[in-house]
Amino acid sequence: MHNSYWFFALLISSTIIFCFLLLKKRNFQTVLLYLTMVGYGYIIETTIFNFLGSYDYYPNLIRHNSFYDSELGAFFSNALSLPVIATLIATFQLNWFWIVFFSGYFVGIEWLFLKLHIYTHHWWRLEYTGLGLPIYFVLAKVFYKWILLPSKGFKHYFMLYLITGSISASAHILPMLFFLNRFYRPGWFENEGRDSIAFSAIYYLCASLFYCLIVKVKWKTKWIKYILSGLFTYIVNLVLIKFGILYSLVWWDQMYYVCLSLLLIVLVKIIDTRLFNPN
Q: 70: which residues sit within 8 A by CB, 6+ positions away?
């Protein structure tokens, strides 16, 4: 059980820092930047972790599936500690000294987790983390400048997609990890957990694009987008079940994802408006 203590330490420290940021800045742009960095991190993690098998985490919090447990460990890193520090660096406009310092700090944590055997590399190396994190932190500063000003064109759509993806992915995958409400079996990997998470990542990436597009379409009758979103989600689930890809295991599963699609339309519309008018 000692494994979990280290991951909870990341959770607690990240939560304290994020609460500090909210109290100091008291603006919605801080939240938007945090979600942007989560969404960006998810895309990177989908590529190197889910599909390329870069490393594994061992928080020992989920006992019924080892890959789900590893996925939760990745969540502590990519949805909490890294985006929170990136948000800290960007919102306080910290210089290169702090970028190098926090990059070294996370390399040190990674090295410690390796020594504690609660994390292991496959083809990944500490050097990749050391080289990648400064880029990640610099991008946070770039995104923050975009968020502070009214955004249009590519900047607007890119940030809207990343923010939508951060919410969509978390709300889609976390219930699967804890409640086993569904799993996917496209047959890409032998490990059922990895197979399920890999497909759910593709699902959320496509769903996020759908939410962004449907919000941007001008509707004479606004409630039609909600009907189309819920109906489309329900039909996609039925098709995936029909082809033996989706296995829905609890009575509330499909209802949850239909309601989630409606909620995301509301949230994406709010975020879209705030990106256009940040003040």
A: 56, 57, 58
What are the phi and psi torsion angles at 79 (to 5°)? -110, -5
Please give the Cα distance from 85 to 2 (Å, whole number): 25
What value does the mean pLDDT of the chain take? 95
What pLDDT is attached to residue 90? 97
Tens digit of pLDDT for each residue in 79-120?
A: 999 999 999 999 999 999 999 999 999 999 999 999 999 999
User: For residue 177, which amino acid is it?
Assistant: L
- Which positions ≥6 away from 173 have C-beta within 8 Å? 71, 197, 200, 201, 204
- From 42, 146, 128, select the one nearest 90 (Cα to Cα): 146
